[in-house]
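Throughout our pipeline, every protein is held as a single compact record rather than as scattered files. The record that follows is passed on verbatim for readers who wish to inspect the format:
___
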Amino acid sequence: MPPPADIVKVAIEWPGAFPKLMEIDQVSAQMAQQLHERIQSSSMDMKLDALKDLANSSRDITFAQEFINLDGISLLTQMVESGTDFGDLLSFTLTAFVELMDHGIVSWDTFSVAFIKKIASYVCKAAMDTAVLQRSLAILESMVLNSQDLYQKVAQEITIGQLIPHLQGTDQDIQTYTIAVINALFLKAPEEKRQVTQSQKQLRSIILSNVIRSNKPINDEMAHQLYVLQVLTFNLLEDRMMTKMDPQDQAQRDIIFELRRIAFDVECDSNNSGSIEKRKSMYTRDYKNVCLLSIMLVFIPPGMLALDNMLYFARHHQDAYIRIVLENSSREDKHECPFGRSSIELTKMLCEILKVGELPSENCHDFHPMFFTHDRSFEEFFCICIQLLNKTWKEMRATSEDFNKVMQVVKEQITRALTIKPNSLDQFKSRLQNLSYTEILKLRQSERMNQEDFQSRPILELREKIQPEIMELIKQQRLNRLCEGTCFRKISSRRRQDKFWYCRLSPNHKVLHYGDLEESPQGEVPHDSLQDKLPVADIKAVVTGKDCPHMKEKGALKQNKELLELAFSVLYESDEYLNFIAPDKHEYCVWTDGLNALLGKEMTSEFTRSDMDTLLNMEMKLRLLDLENIQIPEVPPPIPKEPSNYDFVYDCN
C-alpha cells in the first residue's frame, strides 16, 4: 500500500523528519502488536495491565490506526459479547473501545446486534459499576447519533423508562450521560414517535427534582444537555406551528365558537336575563372578529398553535380570559386590544424567542429552569404573557395604530425577565410585574444616557486623541489574559468532550507554552508543566473560521456554524499549525486579539470594538465632568491679533 500523500510531502520537503516519522510508526506498530497479544492473555493480572495500557495508548491516533489494522476493534467487541469480563476488566475494555472509536477511523455501522444488546444490558442493570455504566451510555449515544440504522436497534433495547433510574442518583456525570442518550434518541426519532408520553412527563419531574433543584451546581456539560432537551421539547410544537387552519373544518371552527361561548356564556345567571341580553348584544361584533380570526390563522407561523394557546388559556385560566375579553369588548373600537390578533402575534413572538423549530446549538448552555416546572410550560408561558400584553396595552393607552409598538415593548419585557433565569413560572410572573411600561421607559432612557455619543467637532477631536491610549490599554489586557492561559477542549466525533489541553503566553511575551491535561484545571497551569513551546517569533499568521486546517479536514465540523465561529489556528515555520477551538466567543476574541497584537496587527474582534466603545465613553464622560451643563461651541474661539508690543510682560529675573 503506498504511503499517504501527506507523508510523501513531508519526506520530500523535510528529508530529516521522515526517518523520525518512520521510527514513531514502527514503535506504535510494535506496541499495538504487543498489546493485541497481551489482552488475550489467560492471566487476569496481565490482561488487566494490558487493558489499562491500551485505554491510555488509544488516545494517540498513530497507535489507534495500528491497533485497528490488527482488527483490534473486533477483538474488543468479542470480549464484550462473551460476557466473561467484569469490573475493571470490562471498564478498561469499554474505555479503550470509546477512545479508538473517537478517532473516526471505523464506521459505527459495523457492529452486531449482540454487541448492542450487551451494551444496553449494562445500562438496564439496576446495580452496575459506575465506570462501566458511564462508558456504556457514551457508546449508546454515539451509536444513535452516528447511524440511523443503529438508532432503530438501540431504540428496541432501551426505553426512557429504563434510563430514568440513572437520573435519580447523585452522580452528575452519570446523569449527564443519561440525558445525552435521551436527547440522542429524541433527536433521531421519526416524527410520528416525537410526542409527549407519560414517561417524558415523569422524566421532566425527575430532572427538576434530582438535577435542577439538587444541591450540586450544574456544570457546563449538564447545562448544555438540559438546553438540548428544552429545545427538542419545544420543537414538538413545530408541527402545530406550521399547520394552517382550514376554514372549512367544522372541528376547528367549533374551537373558535367555544372561545366565544366561554367568554360570553359561562357563569351567566339564567334568571339575569338583562346580563344575558347585554352579553348577546356583543355577538354581532364578536362574530365579525371570529371570521377575522379564521382568516388570520391561515398564516404560518404560528398557525394552529395560536388557537391551541387561546383554548388552553380559556379553559385553564377562565377568569383571566373572561376578564380580558369582556374588558376589551366594552372599550371603544380604537382602544380595544384585539384578543385574537394579540394571541396570534404573541404566539409567533414566543416561538421566535424560544427558537421553536431550530436545531440545538452545539455550544449553548442557555436552559431555563422554569420550563421544567410544568408539563404544559409553553402554554403556561403564553398565559402569563397574554395577560402582560393586555396590562401593557392599558399602561400605554394604546390604540389600534400602536399595536406593533406594544408588541415591541412586550418583547422587551419578556426578554429582560428571561435574562435572570427564573426558577419558576411564578418568579417569571413576579419579575414581569416589576417591568411595567414606565420601568421600561426608565431603562431605555438610562441606556441611552450611557450610550450617548457626542457629535460636536471638539468632542470628536478629543475622542480621536485619546483613542490610541484606550487601544493600548485593551492590548495590554489581552496579553495579560494570554499570560493567564486558557483550557481548550479537544473536539472529537462524539458530543462528549473529555480531553483537554492548555495554552498560555510567557510573561515576557516571547513564547507560547502548551500541553495536554488529564482533566480541566481549577486555576492557572504553571509553565513548567506544559511540555511544548512555540516561540512567538516563529508565528507567521493567525487564520480563523473555514480557513483553519482542522475545519477543512473534518467534514462534520465544517458544517457546524458554531464551531466555525470559534475556530482559529496559528501558522508557524515549516507550514505547521497549532489548532484551537475556543470554549466560547469571549475567549475566541481574547485569543485572536492577543495573537494579532503579538504580531503587530490590528485587533478587529467584536469584543475589542465593544471594549473600545465602553472605555472610550467612560473616559470621555470623566474628562467632560467639569463641563456639565456648559455649551461646547462647534468651532474653537478665534485667536486674537498679536499686540503691538510686549511691554506688559514682567521679567521675573
About this structure: The two ends are 96 Å apart (CA to CA). The CA atoms of residues 381 and 425 lie 7 Å apart. The chain has a mean pLDDT of 84.
